[in-house]
């Protein structure tokens, strides 16, 4: 017999609900959601992971790592840059990208560790 995954009656803890609703108004969940959406694309997740492995990569490096065109890699990098996931710098004719900060690396590594744990527990 299958268990229902919802409450069978309607009731809620008014104090908890009010406290958390108040907290939600003080944090920028929308920006966090947009950043996570940017990383959620498989190619952009691969780029983020690649940049976790090396401090800085040029667009050509990233295109070759992913096996995509430079135009495709650039498109993904622009999206990551707009969401504050990566930094960009130009050196002569080369465009280099790096992670915005250590938090991005931590997010990626924690997500990978979590996924590994979930596979073990399934």
TrEMBL record:
Residues 24-119 form the HTH arsR-type domain. Signal peptide: none annotated. Gene3D superfamilies: Winged helix-like DNA-binding domain superfamily/Winged helix DNA-binding domain. The keyword Membrane does not apply. Keywords: Cadmium resistance, DNA-binding, Transcription, Transcription regulation. SMART domains: HTH_ARSR (SM00418). Coiled coil: none annotated. InterPro entries: ArsR-like_HTH, ArsR_HTH, HTH_ArsR_DNA-bd_dom, Metal_resp_trans_reg, WH-like_DNA-bd_sf, WH_DNA-bd_sf. NCBIfam families: HTH_metalloreg. PANTHER family: ARSENICAL RESISTANCE OPERON REPRESSOR ARSR-RELATED, HTH-TYPE TRANSCRIPTIONAL REPRESSOR CZRA. This is Cd(II)/Pb(II)/Zn(II)-sensing metalloregulatory transcriptional repressor CadC. The lineage of its organism: Bacteria, Bacillati, Bacillota, Bacilli, Bacillales.
């Amino acid at each position: 017999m299958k268990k229902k995954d919802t409450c069978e009656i309607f009731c809620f803890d008014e104090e908890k609900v009010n406290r958390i609703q108040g907290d939600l108004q003080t944090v920028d969940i929308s920006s966090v959601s947009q950043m996570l959406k940017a990383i959620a694309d498989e190619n952009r997740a691969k780029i983020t992971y690649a940049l976790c492995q090396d401090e800085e990569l040029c667009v050509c490096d990233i295109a070759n790592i992913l096996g995509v065109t430079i135009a495709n890699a650039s498109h993904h990098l622009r999206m990551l840059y707009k969401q504050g996931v990566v930094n960009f710098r130009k050196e002569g004719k080369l465009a280099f990208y790096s992670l915005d900060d250590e938090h991005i690396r931590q997010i990626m590594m924690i997500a990978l560790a979590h996924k590994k744990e979930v596979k073990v527990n399934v």
